[in-house]
C-alpha cells in the first residue's frame, strides 16, 4: 500500500546507499498490486532488514509493501522504531522514465539531507566479512575513544592476523567503495543526530568508525608491513570520503575549514576512479557536492539527445567560462566518448591525478600553485556548436624523448614492484655525465628531485609549499642503488611522488628540459605555455587545429619564465 506526502512533511526515514548489482539476477515485488523488479543486492538488504519476509516464487507480498512520497518509496522497518521507512532509489525513481530521472536526480541531495540517517549496505556476509567488521569496530572505537592520541592507543598489531588482514582486504574491495553516487550519499550532512551506519550481513557499525580505523591502521603498521597489509580500506578513497563528509558539515555549519574548498573541478578529479552504470553520472553525481555545482547550465539530462560527450563538454565549458582559466584541461587523458580534446573524458577511470591548482599554505591562506603563464589576462573563445576553443600561448619546445610509463591499472590486492620502473627512469635521466648542468640552472640531479614530486610537499589532498625536492630519491636514481619497491611506503615525500607519477612518464625536450607528462605524450609533441593555464600543456598538431594531449610539469618554466626570456611570440591556438 502506498500513500503520498511531501519531503517537508516526510515521516522519519533512512536513505539507503548501496550498489545495484547484477542486472540479470532479479526478484519481483508488488507495489500496489503492480509488479516491480529489483536486483538481488537490494533483495538481500530487504531480507536482512525484514527477516520476516517470505519469498515463495521470489514475490514480495503487497501487504508488506511500500509507502510513497512523491514517488519516493519507503519500506517499513520493524527493527527500528525510530526509522519507520527506507528510501531506495531503484524503487523510488522510475529508471525507465527519462523525465522523472532528470527531475529526481537534482533532488537527491535534499532526500539524503532530510533522511534521519543514511544506511550503507555492503552486501551479505561472505569472505569473513564479520571478522573484518569486528576489526574495524575495535580499531575505530579505540581511536575515537582516545581521540586519535597515539600514545594512549593500545597495540593492535597482534590482533591483525593474516586471516583478519585477508578479511579486511576483501571487504575493502566490495563494489560499494567504487560507486559514483557514494560520495554524495555518505558525505551528505544530516539534519538529524543519528549517525550514518554501515551494514554488512547482520553486522552494523557507525560509519565514522571507518575513518577512525583508517587512522589507527596507519599508526599501527609501518612501511615494513606494506606488502602484508596493502588494502584499499586505509587508502585515499576512505580518507577522501571521511574528509569530504567533514568539509560538507563545515559548510553546513558555516565554520572555518582548514581543508581545500569543495570545487567542482577538484571533485571531478578526485572521484574520477569511481564507477557508474550511466557514465553521465560521473559528473551528475558530483554536482550537488560542490557549492559551484548548482547552476541552471548544469541540469542533468539523461535523454539520448545529449550524449555522454556532450554532458562532459557542457561541464568543461561551464568551468572554463566561470573561472576564465584553462586549469580544467589538465584533466584531459584518454577518451571513451567523442568530445573535444580540451574536454576531459571523466569516464576514463585511471587517469593521472591533475597537478594541484590551489595551494593551502602553512599560514592558512590559499594561492595558485604554479604560474607558468604569469599574470597575463587570458584570451578564451569557445564555440559550442563547433566544439572549439581558441586560446593564446607560446610554443616552448618539442619533446624529443619519452621514458617508460608508470602505468597504474585497476587496484590490486598486491602492490606493484616499482623498482624496475625506477631503474629504467634512472637510465633515462642520467645516461651519461652524472654532474651535468640543467638548462634552467643548477645540476641535473637537483632538477630531477624537483620533477619527481612536481616541486610539492605534503599529502596530495593538502599541499603545503612549493620548492620541495625528492632529493634522496633523485640521488638514488643517480647512483642506481637503494631504489624502493613501493614509493607509497617510503615516507611522506615517497607518497607525494607515488601520487604524482601515476599514469605519467618522464619527458626530455630538444633544448634539454625535463619534466613529467601523461603516458599519452609522444616525441614531436609540442610543449606550450597557454595563457590561463597554471602549468604547461602538451599539444599535438592535427589537420583541424591542435589536440590537447596532456598537462606537464617542466622544471624551469613553471613560474612565468617563458614570458620573461627575450621577446615571447604569442600565438593563437585553435584547440579541437
UniProtKB/TrEMBL annotation:
Annotated InterPro entries: HET, HetReg/Transcr_Mod
Signal peptide segment: none
Domain Heterokaryon incompatibility: 13-185
PANTHER family to which the protein is assigned, alphabetical: ANKYRIN REPEAT DOMAIN-CONTAINING PROTEIN 39 HOMOLOG-RELATED (PTHR24148), HETEROKARYON INCOMPATIBILITY DOMAIN-CONTAINING PROTEIN (PTHR24148:SF64)
Protein name: Heterokaryon incompatibility
Source organism per UniProt: Metarhizium anisopliae (strain ARSEF 549)
Amino acid at each position: 500500500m502506498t500513500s503520498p506526502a511531501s519531503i517537508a512533511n516526510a515521516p522519519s526515514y533512512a536513505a539507503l546507499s548501496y550498489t545495484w548489482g547484477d542486472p540479470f539476477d532479479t526478484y519481483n515485488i508488488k507495489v500496489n498490486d503492480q509488479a516491480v523488479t529489483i536486483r538481488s543486492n537490494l533483495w538481500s538488504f530487504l531480507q536482512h532488514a525484514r527477516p520476516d519476509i517470505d519469498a515463495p516464487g521470489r514475490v514480495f507480498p503487497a501487504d508488506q509493501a511500500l509507502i510513497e512520497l512523491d514517488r519516493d518509496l519507503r519500506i517499513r522497518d520493524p527493527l527500528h522504531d525510530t526509522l519507520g521507512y527506507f528510501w531506495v532509489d531503484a524503487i523510488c525513481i522510475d529508471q525507465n522514465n527519462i523525465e522523472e530521472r532528470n527531475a529526481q536526480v537534482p533532488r537527491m541531495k535534499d532526500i539524503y539531507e532530510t533522511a534521519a540517517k543514511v544506511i550503507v549496505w555492503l552486501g551479505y556476509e561472505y569472505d569473513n566479512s564479520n571478522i573484518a567488521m569486528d576489526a574495524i569496530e575495535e580499531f575505530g572505537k579505540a581511536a575515537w575513544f582516545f581521540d586519535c592520541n597515539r600514545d594512549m592507543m593500545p597495540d593492535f598489531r597482534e590482533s591483525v592476523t593474516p586471516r583478519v588482514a585477508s578479511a579486511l582486504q576483501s571487504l575493502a574491495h566490495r563494489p560499494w567503495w567504487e560507486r559514483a553516487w557514494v560520495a554524495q550519499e555518505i558525505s551528505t550532512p544530516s539534519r538529524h543526530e543519528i549517525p550514518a551506519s554501515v551494514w554488512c550481513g547482520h553486522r552494523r557499525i557507525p560509519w565514522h568508525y571507518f575513518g577512525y580505523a583508517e587512522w589507527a591502521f596507519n599508526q599501527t603498521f609501518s612501511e615494513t608491513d606494506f606488502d602484508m597489509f596493502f588494502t584499499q580500506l586505509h587508502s585515499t578513497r576512505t580518507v577522501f570520503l571521511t574528509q569530504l563528509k567533514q568539509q560538507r558539515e563545515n559548510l553546513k555549519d558555516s565554520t572555518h575549514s582548514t581543508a581545500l574548498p569543495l570545487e567542482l573541478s577538484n571533485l571531478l578529479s578526485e572521484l574520477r576512479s569511481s564507477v557508474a552504470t550511466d557514465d553521465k553520472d560521473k559528473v551528475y553525481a558530483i554536482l550537488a557536492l560542490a557549492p559551484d555545482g548548482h547552476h541552471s547550465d548544469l541540469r542533468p539530462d539523461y535523454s539520448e539527445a545529449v550524449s555522454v560527450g556532450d554532458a562532459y563538454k557542457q561541464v568543461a565549458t561551464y568551468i572554463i567560462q566561470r573561472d576564465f582559466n584553462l586549469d580544467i584541461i589538465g584533466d584531459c587523458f584518454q577518451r571513451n566518448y567523442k568530445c573535444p580534446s580540451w574536454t576531459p573524458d571523466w569516464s576514463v577511470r585511471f587517469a593521472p591525478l591533475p597537478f594541484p591548482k590551489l595551494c593551502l599554505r602553512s599560514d592558512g591562506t590559499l594561492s595558485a600553485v604554479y604560474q607558468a603563464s604569469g599574470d597575463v589576462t587570458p584570451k578564451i573563445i569557445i564555440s559550442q556548436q563547433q566544439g572549439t576553443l581558441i586560446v593564446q600561448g607560446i610554443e616552448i619546445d618539442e619533446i624529443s624523448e619519452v621514458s617508460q610509463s608508470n602505468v597504474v591499472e585497476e587496484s590490486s590486492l598486491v602492490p606493484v614492484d616499482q623498482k624496475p620502473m625506477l631503474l629504467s627512469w634512472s637510465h633515462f635521466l642520467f645516461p651519461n655525465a652524472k654532474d651535468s648542468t640543467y638548462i634552467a640552472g643548477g645540476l641535473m640531479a637537483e632538477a630531477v628531485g624537483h620533477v619527481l614530486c612536481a616541486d610539492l610537499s605534503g599529502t596530495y589532498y593538502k599541499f603545503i609549499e612549493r620548492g620541495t625536492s625528492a632529493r634522496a630519491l633523485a640521488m638514488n636514481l643517480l647512483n642506481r642503488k637503494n631504489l624502493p619497491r613501493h614509493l607509497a611506503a617510503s615516507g611522506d615525500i615517497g607518497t607525494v611522488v607515488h601520487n604524482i607519477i601515476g599514469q605519467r612518464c618522464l619527458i626530455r625536450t630538444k633544448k634539454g628540459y625535463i619534466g613529467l607528462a601523461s603516458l599519452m605524450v609522444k616525441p614531436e609533441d609540442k610543449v606550450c605555455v597557454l595563457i590561463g593555464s597554471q602549468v604547461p600543456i602538451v599539444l599535438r598538431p592535427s589537420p583541424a587545429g591542435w589536440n590537447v594531449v596532456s598537462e606537464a610539469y617542466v622544471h624551469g618554466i613553471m613560474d612565468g619564465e617563458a614570458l620573461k626570456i627575450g621577446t615571447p611570440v604569442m600565438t593563437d591556438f585553435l584547440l579541437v
